[in-house]
Design goal:
The protein has 14 helices and no strands. By secondary structure, it is mostly helical. It has one domain: Cytochrome c oxidase-like, subunit I domain (Cytochrome C Oxidase, Chain A, Up-down Bundle). Pfam families: NnrS (PF05940). Keywords: Membrane, Transmembrane, Transmembrane helix.
Length: about 375
């Protein structure tokens, strides 16, 4: 047991949670696609397959990656020791039990009880270190994690009461909260990665007002989903999403450097972040009555934005924090392309062809499968 606790994979949060999250990303989408095309038995998890898919993508897959990233980043920000050994194993087991709970023949209330502890525990671990170190500039990240836990409670309450509308509100709010978190983290690390990766001089400090407006607008958008305000088109929400999309475009314009297109670890992040702008502008079009399907905006954010940023980020973080050169293999570069194609298929092909869903799922699973092929050994072995 002591050997397990001291194994390299449990030395820091990114190692087990990146592996678990990437593996779950591939398995869960494969299961969802096979069910969609009628190739699974009639037996379904609590609440049905749609409820399972809606819940598990933000609260299973994305939450695992968020945990791995923040459990690694917060020790760097605070100078305090990161979670490792048995405390880290215990948190991972809480996450794993929540995934397995869907397969158990239990009532909805019991499912809720098994699902809920993970995000509050994560918030407590992160908050303990941030407060102790006085890192108030990172409190917004803690706020987003806490709000994510609240949206999970809303979603699970909808599942336990068979309220489909409540489920949908909770899940959509969670997806846009994760988008808000991606905008906060991306706004910090992407320009830094570009500056370091291309050996450019440090840029002049940017006025903080656009960043604050973007965060506040993104949180308001998430709250509007939780409140059910996006069920019908509204002019003021069209304006809100237009502001969000415009601020994302402003960032992309500021960050752009022709050199990024020669560096896969940079263009993968840049193109994935661009999906955040596409998703916000698509929502603005829907509220303006110019786009028929709101789900296209949602999947722009979920597949292209969140999925793309996660794959690009975990590929870079895994190399950097294991002491390896920031030179991705051709395998993972292919994965970046496949994830981009998955987003394009889900958003632009699905309205015209039923094969779009199958292709999107296939490319998504292949992309995260390639990550596992290339990085499992990296994450299991000691730092170089």
């Amino acid at each position: 047991m002591r050997q397990l606790a001291t194994a390299p994979v449990f030395s820091l949060g990114f190692r087990p949670f990146f592996l678990a999250g990437a593996g779950f990303a591939a398995i869960s989408v494969a299961v969802w696609a096979v069910w969609l095309y009628g190739r699974l038995p009639a037996a379904q998890p609590v609440g049905g397959m749609l409820s399972w898919h809606r819940h598990e993508m933000p609260f299973g897959f994305a939450a695992a990656i968020i945990a791995g990233f923040l459990l690694t980043a917060v020790p760097n920000w605070t100078g305090r020791a990161g979670l490792n050994g048995w405390p880290l194993i215990s948190l991972l087991l809480v996450w794993l039990l929540a995934r397995l709970a869907w397969l158990m023949p239990i009532p909805g209330v019991a499912l809720l009880a098994l699902q809920m502890p993970f995000l509050p525990l994560l918030a407590w671990v992160l908050g303990r270190d941030l407060v102790a170190a006085g890192k108030r500039d990172n409190y917004p990240i803690l706020l987003v994690v806490a709000l994510l836990a609240a949206t999970q409670a809303l979603t699970l309450w909808g599942i336990s009461t068979d309220d489909v509308g409540l489920q949908r509100r909770g899940v959509l709010a969670a997806v846009w909260l994760i988008g808000a978190l991606m905008s906060v983290i991306g706004g910090r690390v992407i320009p830094f990665f570009i500056q370091r990766g291309l050996n450019r001089p440090a840029a002049n400090p940017v006025h903080p007002l656009p960043t604050r407006v973007l965060l506040a607008s993104s949180l308001l958008a998430a709250v509007s989903f939780a409140g059910g305000l996006n069920d019908i088109p509204r002019g003021w929400l069209a304006a809100l999403f237009l502001v969000i999309g415009g601020l994302h475009l402003l960032r992309l314009w500021r960050w752009h450097d022709r050199g990024i297109w020669r560096v896969p670890l940079l263009w993968s992040l840049y193109l994935a972040y661009a999906w955040l702008a596409i998703a916000a502008l698509a929502m603005a079009l829907w509220h303006a009555g110019a786009m028929p399907q709101q789900s296209l905006a949602t999947h722009s954010l979920a597949v292209g934005g969140i999925g793309g940023l996660i794959l690009a980020m975990i590929a870079r973080v895994s190399l950097g924090h294991t002491g390896r050169l920031l030179q991705p293999s051709k395998t993972i570069v292919v994965g970046f392309f496949l994830l981009l194609i998955a987003g394009l298929c889900r958003v632009f092909l699905v309205p015209f062809s039923g094969s779009g869903l199958a292709l999107s799922a296939l490319f998504w699973c292949a992309a995260f499968g390639l990550f596992l092929v290339r990085y499992t050994g990296v994450l299991l072995r000691p730092r170089v």
